[in-house]
């Protein structure tokens, strides 16, 4: 092993391909060595945040990376999912290129992208790669100090491409809409990275914003299903236990230290396919609450409860209960009053009475994992403490 200059971390040698840790600052589209990694003339890149967080990820992934990086790996992206345990996803240049082409085909053609998230994550990296494929330069939003709607509006004004796109997470879109930012200059807003609150896409449409719901994960090069329909050559099926399984050229090769996926990735998400092949994601399999003998998909309940005017953000978790086995609990960051009776009526009316929350816990903010995702285990521990 050797130390990579300027990174403070070590280079990890693979059996047939080197893996170089590359810190990618938030608010930057510059990824040293990306071109060589994509064309195979240089080592694969392990993309990490700068500083201690990047060093922590490299340290956590080091034992797996020491086993070797197979030829054909262009980048490795650390993903922690909802567990907080990092995995290194091995992704080929071929998969990344296909994803970029399929995205542009679906959206109506190549264009310029606004980078509003870290390029060390798959959604941000894809923005960089889509711009490269389109011969465009991304406009970069500086988010090191937090996401600011006024800065986003300024970045929008700097876009010059004939077609203009951005990828956002729901919280970002909510803040833009609350601030009254004009989004009509964008040909499409890809929205993913977590549950989309009920009514958010419709709210955006009323002000002329074209929002495309995306579903995917690092293991599928990011979003591979747009508005319920798979991108070109992406296949979907529902397994016997209700999980979404994905095939096609967007699949990553596998995890560091593990075998290849073998042509299919079985996700941790529950879903259903209608007769026309449109996918509805019901929530994560490990977020299903067994209450009174009924399986309650937490994400489905969250999407409905998010439509309550007093709910700014919501996460639904289970709490051990002597009568019900688990009680459905809504953990809410409130924007106004959130009476339990109203939340129960909302859930019962849109879903099922058995899915309605039996308690509400309010917090100022949600605990988060290093990936930025909500730390659901911490919230489960919190609600257990409210018994």
Automatic annotation (TrEMBL):
For whether the record's keyword set contains Ligase, the answer is yes
Q: Which UniProt keywords apply?
A: Ligase
Q: Tell me the Pfam families matching this sequence.
A: AMP-binding, AMP-binding_C
Which InterPro entries does the record cross-reference, listed alphabetically? AMP-bd_C (IPR025110), AMP-bd_C_sf (IPR045851), AMP-binding_CS (IPR020845), AMP-dep_synth/lig_dom (IPR000873), ANL_N_sf (IPR042099), ATP-dep_AMP-bd_enzyme (IPR050237)
Molecular function terms, GO-annotated: ligase activity
Q: Where is the AMP-dependent synthetase/ligase domain?
A: 67-235
Please state every residue range assigned to the domain named AMP-binding enzyme C-terminal: 301-373
Kindly give the NCBIfam families that the UniProt entry links to this protein.
Answer: PRK07824.1
Q: What is this protein called?
A: O-succinylbenzoate--CoA ligase
* Primary gene name: menE
